[in-house]
Amino acid sequence: MIYTILLSIHLLLFSWAFYNILYFGVKPSKSLSWILITFMFPYVGVFTFILFGINRRKIKYFELKETKKRKKYIEKNFTNTTNKNVTELQNIKATKISNLVFNNTNLPLQLNNDVVVLKNGKETFKALYKAIKNAKSFIHLQYYIFEDGEILSNIITLLEEKRKENVEVRVLYDSIGSFSLKKSTKQKLKEIGVEIYPETPFKFGSFIFSLNYRNHRKIAIIDNKIGFTGGVNISDQYITKNTNLGIWQDTHVQITGCAVKDLHDTFLKDFYYASDINLSQKEKYNTVSNISSNKKIQIVSSGPDYNQAVVMQQYLSLINLAEKSICVLNPYFIPTAAILEAFKIAALSGVKVTLLLPKVTDSKIATYGMYSYFEDLLKAGVNIYLRNDFSHSKVIYIDDEIISIGSTNFDCRSFEHNYELNALIFDKEITSEISDEFNERKKLATKLNLEHFLNRSNKQKTSERLARFLSPLL
């Protein structure tokens, strides 16, 4: 009797999940995975689907209260009506990519910027420390991971000094990414006068619907004059060999000029979401820093608060419009069906496609999931290099002239669930600088050979297939 009741409940739950997957699913392959998961794992499967699989862009009932709040903020404060500077771009592909980003985010192409490429944690923190020391008005920091250690301790010391000078300090952190951050550290920051808030915090009654939506951005703004973004978190992993992955490698950028305001606008939106404090109308946070340098930059903000999967469309556009070459540096390469097909089409069309990926990552399931796509890519003529060190960089550039550097991985989580941010730079000099570094790293990496890769063990192949099946959860 009990068995029959439980079975009946399971079938009802499965039917509900099946209906939502069928009518609101985005991709057939992903939908099939969810159908199998919800059917094969009674109760747990449906709960997992609600947690990780619900398409909140289409199912209004499950749209997050916080997402609605963000959308209203965007409508009120992001009021650019034209992408007027797009006429300064030199070719049609750059124009198309810029217009795509603007029409999705209302963030325009900005002229008169300068960019300093920060190629590792050491360079990044040195530049950040210097900027904080020189702050006169305010310091705004937002990172997915704040982790106790030497780096954070140094930053707190600097912030304490700046607070004594009446410099305003605000900090945002993600509750999952910074889960290990000690309460005593947060209390210390509050005691010295830092306004600190968690993004997407655990709240009774809403955590089931918000757990899957993380703020993965890395932003630092000092006085609206200097901005930082990229892949580097506040963690000692970038300076200390504390795991078998060694010192993490990463790419960050320091930006000065007009684009800093757009970077800052994204922070202000997130700060409003986390704190209910709207700073966007105050003049001191809206100043634009004009400089003589001529780097063209467009900030790409993405997340569940936009109607489109912005960064996935940005990446697809870059891949599809490339004429000569595509180079990718990314730690978690678990592409969607559309992205995978775009890479194959590009390679088969004669575009030189090169992926520089880590041989191992900090997640076994992510590593196996990544390897599961290699066979298809190699058969299409994509060049895949595996590096022995762990690179956390999120970089893609095409034709040695357009480059994206930011927080976005090549996976469903970044494309559909996370709040992400990239800096799209239309500049041959900056792209060439990254390309030189890319080629030097490539020389030290191992190029995959299709014939050799096909001979990998059955155990490896089985692990890859299992990881790929679970890819909707990654």
Defining traits:
single chain; 474 residues; alpha+beta; Endonuclease, Chain A; 3 domains; 15-stranded mixed beta sheet; 15 strands
Could you explain the architecture of this structure?
There is one protein chain. The chain has 474 residues and is of the alpha+beta class. It has 3 domains: 2-63; 66-92 and 108-296, Endonuclease, Chain A, CATH 3.30.870; 310-473, Endonuclease Chain A (Endonuclease, Chain A), CATH 3.30.870.10. It is 44% helix and 18% strand. It has 18 helices and 15 strands. Strands 4-3-2-5-6-7-1-8-14-13-12-9-10-11-15 form a 15-stranded mixed beta sheet, sandwiched between helices. Strand 9, helix 12 and strand 10 form a beta-alpha-beta unit. Helix 11 runs parallel beside helix 12 (337-348). The protein starts with a helix and ends in a 5-residue tail after the last helix.
Outline:
With 474 residues, this protein is of the alpha+beta class.
